[in-house]
């Protein structure tokens, strides 16, 4: 049996299955609630989202290490999400993000996934 057909799940697969199971349970519970109560439960916790996004723009934890080559994209999606919530990032964070993205520029054109990486 080769690596690709291994029968033991990876840690990330187990984590994904756990999250899917939890979300499915929430959806099942939500489906049993009357529609007027559902609308009361659908509250965007805007401040918590902004806090999470801003924290992610400052530093991504070790769980995001598999996304290392996607860091410029993550910057884009995080900043875009903050903008969709009607907010902006502070000047220091903006400067740090621009400086990081400049370090991702490839002298031959394009952007790499991170400083010192090839742009492909």
Automatic annotation (TrEMBL):
Domain Prenyltransferase alpha-alpha toroid: start-end pairs: 44-118
Domain of life from the UniProt record: Eukaryota
Claim: Metal-binding is one of the keywords in the record: yes
Cofactor: Zn(2+)
Family matches, as Pfam families: Prenyltrans (PF00432)
Molecular function GO terms recorded: metal ion binding; protein farnesyltransferase activity
Keywords from the UniProt entry: Metal-binding, Prenyltransferase, Repeat, Transferase, Zinc
Annotated Gene Ontology cellular component terms: protein farnesyltransferase complex
Family stated for the protein in its record: Belongs to the protein prenyltransferase subunit beta family.
PANTHER family noted in UniProt: GERANYLGERANYL TRANSFERASE TYPE BETA SUBUNIT, PROTEIN FARNESYLTRANSFERASE SUBUNIT BETA
Protein name from the UniProt record: Prenyltransferase alpha-alpha toroid domain-containing protein
Organism: Arachis hypogaea (Peanut)
Lineage of producing organism: Eukaryota, Viridiplantae, Streptophyta, Embryophyta, Tracheophyta
